[in-house]
Amino acid sequence: MDHRNRVSSPTLTRPHRATGTDEREDHVAEGTDDRALPATEELALARRALDSGELTHAAEHVAAALARAPTLPEVHEALARLAAASGDGGLGLFPLQHHTFVGAVVARAHLLAAAGHPAEGLDLLVAATAHAPGADWAGVPWVTSSELAERLGPEQAARVLMQVCAAVADPVPPANRAALSPYLTLARNAITVHPEHALLLGTASALARRVDEIPLAVRWASRGVRATPSKMGEVWLGYALRSAGRTREALAALRRAVGHDPDDLTVYADIAATLADHGRLEEALGWIERALARNPSFDCAVHTAHRLRFQRDGAVRHLVALADFIRDHPDDSHEHGDLAECCRGRPWLGQLTPPTPTTGAAAIHGHPDTGHVEELEPPADRPTPPPPSAEAARRLRELAHPAWPHPPAAYDAAVGLATLDLPDLLGLLTHPPETPQNALGRVLSGQDPALWLRCVQVWTCLGLLHHRTDEPWADSTRRRVLVELAREVAEVSEAALFALVTAAWVDPSVRPDVAALVTGRLAAVAEAARHQPVPNAASLAHLALATPDLDPETIALAQALAGVTAGQRRGALRALLRRLLPPWRSRPRGTP
């Protein structure tokens, strides 16, 4: 992700439905909500309003039609007619405000281009692209014409391409690449006019690489470096070569970039990431240590360092340190995915473990290490909670999932349960809602219904972490209830312990308390395992390995217990999650 080239743009709103002269309805899609009127109907309403001289209402319908069909010739004909009927070329009908409808922004962009200000129009089209990357906002003749490239000049063209790169994912998902082809055509046209402009060639290469035009990206970046050697030129070339699988050449280019500017620590992080991706971990750590020696708090270097250290030895302390850094530095230069990358697919760090064979649908108490499984009520000092409210069940269904990016993200997501009272939360555990009527529910119902119960338990316990957060931890209701669940309700024990472990991730002050609780629980399980099999021993061991500030002896014990886990069940869960989660792909860390 390019954090160097950001432009301000209006805050765009979702498409609206123009239902008449004074009624509009919010939509939730990127210009394609099925509740919206078709573009042809919006056009008919726009023409009727134009004939009546109601230009403001006509503009609303034209904007709505643009949101639905941004390249339809009839929509642009209506926009031209509207511009001709107004006194200022139509610009006054589409003002930029703090929150502006995306169709109105696109209409203004086209009017600016018609008025001789194509650069300003392109800025607005790029803002629309950032808002809805899959819509073909720029697929119009004035953007793809060779004349535009001549009028813009190389610096302005390069600036537009930088904006596009900053606005889209890296790499762009295949479904959204066609919508960016007009910008790539603009790049081709500009390079035809200015074939030796290094900045233009570099930014064009960055865009080509994002849309998987890798040979073109290498060719343009190479030409840019030959024209004017520079740090950024080498970075663009290094990225293009890396995408082409030419790792040795990519590293050489990135090292040359460091030679141009030894103080740009982002490039050090990129070199380290590239080396690590190709199994050269010690070299990678050497580069990242060089970066940290120059600036110990530089965000890209810190994120990469903790990720690589975890990759080297698997110690969770590196991830906890990274989570602490993220919490203490909320204003990083750009978004990083290192913590989520490390936690993805790992038991309790990024997903729950599958239920053990002893797990049933009813609450049980006693300890799993005793082998005693008995259907009973909650602890004796607490009456059976009533069923949860419909609202509590609805929130839980919307939230519960077998995977999460990392423990702090799971904690943040569970804030959706924060306003539920304690009886509702306990009711969710005692009377779990039915599986949701969505893709997740269908997969779980068809493959592993017990996993949904596990999801309910985990997310409800995470919700308990948000209960009465004004109470000091040691004597808080949330701690008391979670500890009781962990000790006395065996079926919910792991979910409650995970919530406690998550509390330790987000609040360093509770780490000694949580570490002591987990240590005691693991010791009891290990003792029981000496005499008979304990089905959930491996899951508890993985939970311990996810706990901050555990002592070395307990970590060693957890590692030994985790070694007996049932790989077949883990494999089945991984296969299930692959059906539910999009594949993660790495991306460059901070440079274009």
From TrEMBL:
Entries under Pfam families matching the protein: TPR_19
SMART domains hit by this protein: TPR
Annotated stretches, region: Disordered: 1-37, 360-393
Extent of Basic and acidic residues compositional bias: 19-36, 366-375
Residues passing through the membrane, by range: none
Full protein name: Tetratricopeptide repeat protein
Species classification: Bacteria, Bacillati, Actinomycetota, Actinomycetes, Micromonosporales
